[in-house]
Amino acid sequence: PRPIEVLNRALEETKEQRNRIAGGEAVVHWFKRDLRTTDNQALSMASAKAKSLGVPLICMFIVSPQDYQAHLTSSARVDFELRTLEIMKEDLAEKDIPLYVTTIQERKEVSGHMLQKFEEWGAKHVFCNIEYEVDELRREAELVKRCLEKGIAFTAVHDDVVVPPGTLKSGAGKQYSVYSPWLKAWTKHLHEHPHLLEASEPPSHNPPTARTTFSTLFELPIPSAPPNKSLPPSDRTRLAHLWPAGEHAAQTRLHHYLATKASAYKTSRNFPAAPATAMLSVHFSAGTLAARTAVRLARAANKPAQRLETGDAGLVCWISEIAWRDFYKHILAQWPFVCMSKPFKYEYSDIEWDHSPQLFAKWCEGKTGYPIVDAAMRQLNSMGWMHNRCRMIVASFLAKDLLLDWRLGERYFMEKLIDGDFASNNGGWGFSASTGVDPQPYFRIFNPLLQSEKFDEAGEYIRKWVPELKGVVGKAVHDPYGRGAGEEAEKSGYPRMAVEHKVQREKALERYKEGLGRG
Ligand code: FAD
Known about the structure:
Elements: H1 3-13, H2 15-20, E1 26-31, H3 41-53, E2 57-63, H4 65-70, H5 75-93, E3 99-103, H6 110-121, E4 123-129, H7 134-149, E5 153-157, H8 179-192, H9 209-213, H10 215-219, H11 233-242, H12 246-260, H13 265-268, H14 281-286, H15 291-301, H16 313-334, H17 357-365, H18 371-383, H19 388-401, H20 406-416, H21 422-432, H22 448-455, H23 460-465, H24 486-492, H25 501-518
Parallel strand pairs: 1-2, 1-4, 2-3, 4-5
The protein binds flavin-adenine dinucleotide (FAD).
């Protein structure tokens, strides 16, 4: 059985037993990638439980260096989470709710430490939101059982996605693996189940006695980043300015975006020079903003229809992009082997990739000689974020121009992105390398120069991120050596093209065809 089924079963089979557990001296909410106090299902349930029992709510978060390692979490992301926790600690303290944050070095000791704390605090009810990666689902299923052995009810609920995975099935009763019919089913499901878009209640104020009973928890500081994930102070300051942490920043950005830019999203979203997308992905992936909240507010802004699929074209399109995030999480839950470095299309398991650390380094550093690719990689290295159009361009370039294994790029992205999210990243790489759920055939190969001219026509994005080409005028900025600006490029130290697109394209077609024959 799939890990999601194991967890669902564990929750289902223990439901009555868990319901029978009474009392306790506290209720716990375990924060993971749901770092917000508003519209948070499990937190809301935990608070309601605590209120009904007349006991305090305690929140906890575990900093797990080994989890960071296993998930290839970037230092920028760890820093964002820790900055968010500082803010949350203060917000929760205003309601007399303590936030316990500690670092547990060994991954295998996390569950044991949590159990020990539940017992120490006299907590009989623990709540959390579900994460859909294999290890996390397995851990939660095990926690349901281990907690029950100690008389503790552990409840995990769906919150990270708008529609829970496993819900949408085609007429033949199968899970969808193609986005368009899936989106139709997703929209229909939301019309039929409007409660899925309703906001959950914020946590209530704790009884004032919580301050004295759990005074030590209120005094505990938020730990600093583990040594292998800490940033130099100058990067911390820069990233804190670029990516203000916490749910208040997320709400401000969301409201501003919906009021000022979302209506133009459909026509402007593909141009990386224009700040036309919401830049909210870091908030969705750290959970400082719920996808549910964003869809609900976008639908409300879609006046007068207030629909998900008709009305303002920009808002409708934006909602459908948030749906992609749900889609990839559904794929991950249904086909968990994608978590194990396997392509979704198993018939593409045997493509022969080149081995070239030199070419890979050029790609990572933004020195391939293709200005649009280099601009994008430098944006990633500097901001921990890259525009979606450029993510597709550089991913296609790695697999189909450099002929390097897409998994190298998938990994590099996770190590750098502040919004790194396994499901969306894996889905995006599969899409771009033609090994994923996208039904397009492998012979759809991006031409990086045409992409550059089409989506960065004036070269504004390139000049911003590739200072060597700042002075190059006109179309030459897309291909300085090929379009008469070679001398200038040479002088500024801009590299020549590492590979020739036309040649590599042919090789890629051959390799994919051969791989498909073997697969
Ligand atoms: P907007 O365009 O404003 O979209 C709003 C939200 O919708 C985003 O914040 C995001 O949550 C969701 N969304 C939009 N496009 C996609 C998409 N194609 N797939 C899934 N969700 C989407 N997104 C991540 O959040 N984390 C990743 O690690 C990640 N890796 C990617 C890797 C590749 C190779 C590709 C092609 C895409 C990847 N994406 C990833 C998807 C997308 O590029 C980003 O979500 C988007 O660029 C974030 O910017 P935004 O918030 O301004 O998005």
